[in-house]
Amino acid sequence: MALTHRKCTDTDLDTLVNISRETFIAAFEKDNDPKDFQEYLKKAFHQDKMALELHDANSLFHFVFEDEVLVGYFKLNLNDSQTDIKDPNALEIERIYVLGPHQGKQIGAWMVQQIIQLAEGMDKTFIWLGVWEHNPKAIKFYQRHGFEKFAEHPYYIGTDKQTDWLLRLDLQ
């Protein structure tokens, strides 16, 4: 299994919207109110919104490939594009998703290692992310990679106020 990643470009927008929707639906649809969930999907993964994010110099989308097959993606935020902390020494992982048929192959672990290398190459001192408090599988995954809870913040799916745990990995 040869894994690679590359930064997304304008020509990737349609694929990015599709994989973003597909992976988010698979991960969270069953645990949310259908009306709130559909409202969130329409806004968060609207083509125009994602095009703006793709053009933001402080947001980085990367596709992940196994051999030449798209298996997942991640989104990183820097500086003022971070959703919460906005620390210039930090890198936020806003999204990290692996398509269902490719889960269980350690692709997520590989992605975290690639993100750590990217952060170190940018001289960042820590990586942080938000993970839904009711997602124990993801929480355990990040904790296995050295992330520790340091705070919480609200996250809305439609009108449903949820709580994300903020996890941090110090690099230096």
Count of individual beta strands: 7
What is the arithmetic mean of pLDDT? Answer: 96
CATH superfamily: Gcn5-related N-acetyltransferase (GNAT)
In CATH, the topology is named Aminopeptidase
As for the number of domains, it is 1
Key traits:
single chain; 172 residues; alpha+beta; Aminopeptidase; seven-stranded mixed beta sheet; 7 strands
Q: Concise description?
A:
By secondary structure, the protein is of the alpha+beta class.
SSE order and pairing:
Blueprint: E1 3-7, H1 13-28, H2 34-44, H3 47-55, E2 59-66, E3 69-77, E4 90-98, H4 107-121, E5 126-132, H5 136-144, E6 148-157, E7 160-170
Parallel strand pairs: 4-5
Antiparallel strand pairs: 1-2, 2-3, 3-4, 5-7, 6-7
Helix pairs in contact: 1-3
Structure description:
By secondary structure, this protein is of the alpha+beta class. It has one domain (3-170): Aminopeptidase (3-Layer(aba) Sandwich). 35% of the residues lie in helices and 34% in strands. It contains five helices and seven strands, in the order E-H-H-H-E-E-E-H-E-H-E-E. It has helices at residues 13-28, 34-44, 47-55, 107-121, 136-144, and strands at 3-7, 59-66, 69-77, 90-98, 126-132, 148-157, 160-170. The chain has a seven-stranded mixed beta sheet with strand order 1-2-3-4-5-7-6, with helices on both faces. Strand 4 (90-98), helix 4 (107-121) and strand 5 (126-132) form a beta-alpha-beta unit. The chain is globular and about 45 Å long. The mean pLDDT is 96.
